[in-house]
Amino acid sequence: MFVNKNLKFLRNRQGWTQKQLAEKLGLKQSVIGAYEEERATPPLTCLLEVSEIFKVSLDTLTRKD
Q1: Of 3, 27, 14, which Cα lies nearest the Cα of 53?
Q2: Which residues lie below 8 Å from residue 21, measured CB to CB, with a gap of 6+?
Q3: Which whole-number Å values give the CA distances from 37 to 22, 30, 31, 48, 55, in the listed order?
Q4: Inter-CA distances, 20 with 15, 17, 64, 65, Å
Q5: Which of 8, 20, 53, 65 could connect to 16 by a Cys-Cys bridge, CB 3.0–4.6 Å?
Q6: Phi/psi zone of residue 16: left (φ > 0), alpha (ψ -120 to 50 degrees), beta?
Q7: Of residues 49, 53, 47, the one with CA closest to residue 2
Q8: How confident is the model at residue 20, as a pLDDT?
Q9: pTM summary value
Q10: Pairwise CA distance, residues 33 & 55, whole Å
Q11: Rounded distance, CA 54 to CA 11, Å?
Q12: What is the pLDDT of residues 7-57, one digit of tens each?
């Protein structure tokens, strides 16, 4: 999966910090950082929430560009 790059791209496109996204997801900023740096993989429930927040499909979130 390429969630890390796509997550960071979508977050930056909205002009949000990691902390702002984390608050929307009910997570800590360090968790978002871990996802973006591929130190952790978000669970499917988190991916679904992210796709809803950014109004993108799971395919878009996980695809390689």
Answers
A1: 14
A2: 11, 32, 53
A3: 15, 10, 10, 19, 22
A4: 10, 5, 25, 25
A5: 20
A6: beta
A7: 47
A8: 98
A9: 0.90
A10: 21
A11: 8
A12: 999 999 999 999 999 999 999 999 999 999 999 999 999 999 999 999 999
Tell me the residue type at 36: E
Amino acid in the structure at residue 5: K
Output the CA torsion sign for 43, 21, 12, 29: negative
Tokens of 9: 């791209």
- Is there a contact between 10 and 21 (Cβ–Cβ < 8 Å)? no
* Structure token pair of residue 33: 């950082």
Distance CA 53, CA 21 (A): 9
